[in-house]
Amino acid sequence: MADYAMYHAMGEQQPAGNQNPQYQQQQPQQQSGNSQFRPPIAPSPSGYQQTGSPYAPQNPYASANTEAGAQAGYQQTPPPSAMQDQGYFPPAGGHTPVQGQDGMNNLSAQMGGMGLDGSGTVRKKRNRHAHHEIASQGSSQPFNGMQQSGGVQSGLSTPNQFTGQQVTPAMSQFPASVNPVYSPSPQTQNTGASVTPAQGRVDPEQIPSIARSRDAPAAYYLEHVFPTMENHVPPPASIPFVAFDQGNSSPKFARLTMTHIPSSAEALASIGLPLGLTLQPLAPLQEGENEIPVLDFGDVGPPRCRRCRAYMNPFMTFHNGGNKFVCNMCTFPNETSTEYFAPTDPTGVRVDRQQRPELTLGTVDFIVPKEYWTRPPVPLNWLFLIDVTEESVNKGFLDGFCEGVMSALYGGRNDSEEEEDDSTASKGKIPAGCKVGIVTYDKAMHFFNLSPKLDQAQMMVMPDIEDPFVPLNEGLFVDPHESRTVITQLLNQLPQMFNPDIMAGLKNPEPALLPALEAAAGALAATGGKIICSLAALPTWGRGRLFLRDDNTAVAGSDAEKRLLTTEHPAFTKLATKMVETGVGADFFLAAPSGGYLDIATIGHVSAKSGGEVFYYPNFHSPRDTLRLSKEIKHTVTRQTGYQALMKVRCSNGLQISGYHGNFTQHTFGADVEFGVIDQDKAIGVMFSYDGKLDPKLDAHFQSALLYTTASGERRVRCHNLVASVAESGGEAMKFVDQDAVVTIMAKEAASKLPEKSMKDVRSAITEKTVDILAGYRRNFSSTHPSGQLVIPENLKEFSMYMLSLIKSRAFKGGREPTDRRVHDLRMVRSMGPMELSLYLYPRIYSLHNLDDKDGFANENGHLSMPPSCRATFAKVQEGGAYLVDNGQICLLWLHSQVSPHLLEDLFGPGYNSLKSIDPFLNELPTLDTHLNAQTRNILQYLENVRGGKALSVQVARQGLDGAEYEFARLLFEDRNGEAQSYVDWLVHLHRCIQMELSGQRKKEDTASMKLSEWEGVVYQVFRYHEEKYSGDSIGHGVGVECTCFFG
Ligand SMILES: [Zn+2]
């Protein structure tokens, strides 16, 4: 338990820099630049030429060790064992430099023909796989499995930084010893063979922890780069990392559920895992990552396979001196066009390879010529469609929205002029050439002429909402900088203009949404573009008016509830289809200030089908929520956005696409996926099935191509390429599972089953699938374990918890849930990327009352030192504690009723020394001169930087005082909640189902809740074993097998 008197003392001994509490100014490492959270610096943007240079900063491991030690110091459980001291880093002064050297050589060998001297240290390879031939040209060689088993000497491979067991960071949540053979985790040591055997129960301390599974890799990837061709599972999606594209796309863009793919459908079925790919094609880059190159092949367009139309990529091979190239997808031998011809060197590598990003990088953008156009591309047009009805005005939503638009366009209402000339400020704003328009609506529509020639905006009222037209030829869409004065003036006036208290006789409380949307879509039909629409009440006026469908009487799980989760409104459906056709999409900002029903099922359908997003404020409160509103409008306008988009995924012969999951339009099965708009936060899932058998001698290839127009008006194709090995057995594939990809694919698939299936059936299906996967592992891979053990594969260690969270999430949970919230979350799950989903399914929780002095500040390398995160269970909540709980959607500051007055004053300022004194509508922390305040704001800044599309604003949840406490309880996913099980009970339940499956007694329906009492006598133990099947040069087969066992 923390000593609060001591805590306060800590607050007093602040660093001198604290007078200026802006974190940036506090950095002792000023030279490290503008961002204290900067990741390690990847090699320079010239890419492959640079691969020979050390890929990571030359941090002496001594300093890394210091950090490891510091990390250990944060552990709440005391004394770090010797093993923990070694932690994730080899002993100081070890063979690190040698590793680095070897890593370089190793990489150069992989990439082939890079002009690097890789002689001498290249390991021998088994010649089993045909793609060795390709390897010499810089391809998939490491996917042989060699890297994994031989990784001991590879400086580039992350595992040996962790342990000698070639454990990827994702797999290894324990700081393990360097001894590769048998290394019980510190956990195991702490707990011995069994946990509290006296009680005969599972010790919740010992079950796999998502919190721990994130912290260790997060610390590791602060100082290390993830090279994408290594034969390892990617880092956890929820943590920041710098990826270095070596020909395989970064996991930020694309993650396969497994990087070794079973050769047949039967082998895949035996392990129960889905074969799928998550794609977030415009995912944002992190500082330190190389920009995506934009390649222009002029009128002939990018080189492609003549048969399957795959785009040129690093895995196509050149023959006949460069005259032919063989497609890696369909193996068709193409003639190289004269424009694209370059001779090959004696090893078969094109001489110009190093100068050609499309031959060296997994992700590139191709500029495409006219034949890819449907019309001449122009910079994106934005139309703000603003609800000015009474509710919107009176509840402060209109005011907040106008402020948000100004913030998005100009940086804010007040900091006006000085930013005009600031050229750097243009970054993150609307790209040059983009135009904006403003239309407001209530029962009528009001168009605004924003021409810069005018003194002020001219309003044109369109009262005819039955057959609306756009009454403006010019001045509707304008350059936001040329018309800045007119626009800011208008946005400042709008809240008054439509205030019924000021403008007598103006009472139009009902919004006519559909006619307004149709007019907006019509105005954009010629060019394509994006609508940003606000709405603060159920649109009950005019054509397409909606009704209070959800009167809270529909029984959960009933057909009536199902109907509420979808729309049968033909006009909204038709509008969505039309918008996609014309390259238009819509983001909605929906507020229900009085907590009322909005029919998001119908309204949100428009954004779901057109590739947009819904930002929903269920109990909008001004001014608390205006901060978030403003930030989210700014984000939606400034994030990377493309429009008129079409996506296609190609894969190797033997596989075929069996389905797409996400928010998009697909006209027929097998057709390309269409988006009116697409942005950096949107992801889809792609499922594959077999139409034959894969050749284990070959690799499996995947390529996604997104044809889109950039916001700056360029028609491009963004290509992502992935390669995977083909595994002869399912068991081998199981070693290379990407947990985040599996979770994402399963969540998206589950969300797409609704509303056709009932909520209960979908929850059952999630449970079934979880059992299938764990039983599959048991059957294939760990039959040597006694049958009484629950065995969990190391790479899927937290998978069960994520699935439990999915069942408990708002999207899928049992019991009553307002259908607006339910359908909103369902659609979000369908479009979220793996990072946002991971946070949604398991929040990050940090305790503030016992922070180490160094937490929340930069370490010696200029990277933010984060405290360890806590498990999402009330059992971990300490009396008198203060916690930040962030799930990427909301961020709660939960305060225990006995929290120290000193802590409160340090956090909120003098005089705020009791829970009652704190403003419950606070949305950010004040800037104070205390150590704790600075630490907390820095941690919040980190959380804001590492999340998906939603903005961060703080919501206070004081124990016993605030309604937000319920949300806090809901986010404690490990606890029993409503009808859903606790984590421990869930594992016991899964264990029983697996046993029944293995003994052939499982009934598929048997997913009824299990009571822990039926499993009295369960004892539990964690151990890991290591399997070494390889020796000498014939490596590549045996891989360290990690698993966690529970003795049942
Ligand atoms: Zn082809």
Structure in words:
This protein is of the alpha/beta class. It contains 30 helices and 29 strands. Strands 4, 6, 10, 18, 20, 22 and 23 form a seven-stranded mixed beta sheet that branches. Strands 14-13-12-11-15-16-17 form a seven-stranded mixed beta sheet, sandwiched between helices. A four-stranded antiparallel beta sheet has the order 3-5-21-19, with helices on one face. A hairpin with a 4-residue loop joins strand 26 and strand 27. Helix 22 runs antiparallel to helix 23. Bound molecules: zinc ion. The site of zinc ion has 8 residues, from loops. InterPro entries: ADF-H/Gelsolin-like_dom_sf, Beta-sandwich_Sec23_24, Gelsolin-like_dom, Gelsolin-like_dom_sf, Sec23/24_helical_dom, Sec23/24_helical_dom_sf, Sec23/24_trunk_dom, SEC23_SEC24_subfamily. Its main location: membrane. This is Sec23/Sec24 family protein.
Task: Note the total helix count.
Answer: 30
Q: What oligomerization state is this entry in?
A: single chain
Q: Taking Cα atoms only, what radius of gyration do you get, to the nearest Å? A: 29 Å
* Uncertain segments: 1-200, 414-428, 1006-1048
- What is the strand tally? 29
**Strand-residue fraction?**
15-25%
Question: The biggest beta sheet, please?
Answer: 7 strands, mixed
Q: How far apart are the first and last residues' alpha carbons, in Å?
A: 33 Å
Tell me roughly what share of residues is in helical segments: 25-40%
Label the structural class. Answer: alpha/beta
Round the mean pLDDT to the nearest integer and report it.
78
3D shape: globular
Q: Cofactors and ligands present?
A: zinc ion
